[in-house]
Amino acid sequence: MQQARKLYKADRIVSPVYPSVSPSARPDPGRRVKKFKLFVVFTLCFFLSLVVVAQYSSLVILNYRLSSARAELVAIQEASRSLELEVAQLSSIGRIDQIAREELNMVDPEIDQLRVITVSRTDASRLGE
Length: 129
Hints:
The protein is an all-alpha fold and 129 residues long.
């Protein structure tokens, strides 16, 4: 029996880096399950961290869009105010009177060109006819 062991050890190559594993020793199946569970946990953590990063990224993008929309709103409000001011200036009675007199050569009506019309309450229903 001892001679058979000596022959077996002589035929076998033993690596100095990796310890020799006897053929009768098999890896523990529980260890393989633990490795798989650990791999699953790390994979889930990785994907969850990707989800968190994606959420923060979309939050940053939405904040950027919101700030540009606010800036655009302020610009539109300023333009609206300036246009309202221009409308008020262009529709003033003094300006209309000045254009009528200077550019259109209009004059005030004479006294005999004016007619005063009065309406009584009983005749009010006849106005629409």
